[in-house]
Amino acid sequence: MAKGYWIVSVEVSDPAQYAQYVSANAAAFSKYGARFLVRGGAHTIKEGAGLARNVVIEFKDYATALACYDSSEYQHAITFRAGAAKANILVIDGYDGPQPKENA
Hints:
- This protein is α+β, with helices and mostly antiparallel strands and 104 residues long.
- It has a single domain, classed as 2-Layer Sandwich (Alpha-Beta Plaits), CATH 3.30.70.
- It is 35% helix and 29% strand.
- The chain has three helices and four strands.
- It has helices at 15-31, 62-70, 72-81, and strands spanning 4-12, 35-39, 53-59, 85-93.
């Protein structure tokens, strides 16, 4: 079964208030078994526009990724992000199909 993911880009304008969001979202992430694959770090935009911070969060499946976003715990956390950051959040179903063949 394919996993589910959040792909997030964030531009923080108020670090102190954003820290409250990070603290609050931990309850939802713990409840839904979230696992950070990318959390900030160096990046290079090769095409298009991006925001300063990028995050990829893995869940056991797409339904769980959606449930986490829609949960009362996460919706509460969002209230701390309002006015502190601009965020783009994409909840996406993972891919569990064939992969390109390796060169021999």
